[in-house]
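Task card 7
Instruction: Convert sequence to structure tokens.
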Amino acid sequence: MSITKNIAKPLLSFLVLLILSTPQVFSQTYDLNNSASKLTISGTSSLHDWDIDVEQQKGQIVLNMANELKIEKLTLDVIAESLKSGKGGMDKNTYKALNTNKHKSIAFQLTDVKEIKASGTDSYKVEVAGNLTVAGVTKKTSLHLDMLVTSNKVTLKGNKSFKMTDFGIKPPKALFGTITTGDDITITFDTILNK
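Output:
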């Protein structure tokens, strides 16, 4: 009798532990691979169109694959002074406009998943909403993403257009105001996250 009791107690504890930990098995965390990811900000000016690439970004996505694919978490953080155009003067004007002395990063934080729709093998069309913070101003924004999920990698592709003035940013000027930057910008991203 005591042998049965001795076996039953650890077995019961193990089963309870297994039941409690099972949901965790389905959540998978993927971290942004900075060297493999690309994020470009594009805009216009009175002289020519321009692009600025992001050199330092980090982020994370947590997917739950229990019954159907769910996004539990999605974050992106860009170091503001890692925006590089290849032109020192333009970069300086960008940092001034973003007030990088005070606001060190540009960030996106998921608040709501509106739709996840399968579009092929391991491919999904996704619409999410979240808080985008630029130059210290936070706005609710939605993103449409193409998402590819494999066992050890998630790829997110998409773009988002908005106005600098939406975030209280005065479009930069150069050469004593003779060159003016357009208010509209587009962010294009090809983000790789690895397990």
